[in-house]
Amino acid sequence: MPLATPKHFNKNATDVQALQTQADTGTWLIDYMCERLAVPGLGALDVLDFGCGCRFADAIVNNCLPVHSYTGIDIDYEMVAWLKDNVRDPRLSFHYWNARNPLYNPSGFPMTTAMELPTGDRTFDVICMFSVITHQLPEDASVIFRLLRRYIRPHGKMFFSVNLQDAPEDYFEMGPTPTAFSAYSWRAVQQLLEQSGWRVLSKAGKNAQDAHGRPMPIQDSLLCAPIL
């Protein structure tokens, strides 16, 4: 059944919303991620989308994209409840996680490496994060990388976006509100990843182009593998 996602759940930037429907921009990003993963699609892969929003669910359901399984985690209780009630595709599942973020969820619980994700003991072939690390304090970014390392399969990959800036600071905010638009130096991100058990396989800059020459609505992006 087609998925008619309420407009207020579309949290993409205004310029991204102007490009095309949420399902279509989601499809572009999934296709681009697959290019970076060097796979033809997600049909054989179990995917964990950390900070999922609803864009990829929209794309998978409405554009009939292949995926073996897709698991989304998000801090937006209302949106997750709506997705659970309205997505009938058995390949897709969603979990609410009341983690603290200074801007988006200040009353949530502080994240620590001792906690468990709401997915049980499942592991995944692909873990992705879009516009997640771009809204994190360094200590929270470190916890997220360490947590996700426990849920990746030995030959799995992590793909995520990040706001990299050529600046003397390892981390700073690009506005007055903490975590509204968090920026990191390349050195700082490398250190956070290595300390969390990840190695970088590839890096692409802002608005990188896909195989068709189409600019992607994404910040800088990294493809990583677990350090074994």
Care to describe what's here?
Strand 4 (124-129), helix 5 (138-149) and strand 5 (152-162) form a beta-alpha-beta unit. The longest helix is centred in the first third of the chain and has 16 residues, at 22-37. The strands form 2 sheets. A 7-stranded mixed beta sheet has the order 3-2-1-4-5-9-8, sandwiched between helices. A two-stranded antiparallel sheet has the order 6-7. The chain has one domain (19-226): Vaccinia Virus protein VP39 (Rossmann fold, 3-Layer(aba) Sandwich). Helix 2 packs across helix 3. It has 228 residues and is of the alpha/beta class. It is built from 6 helices and 9 strands; from the N terminus they run ααβαβαββαβββαββ. It starts with 13 loop residues before the first helix and ends with a strand. The relative contact order is 0.14.
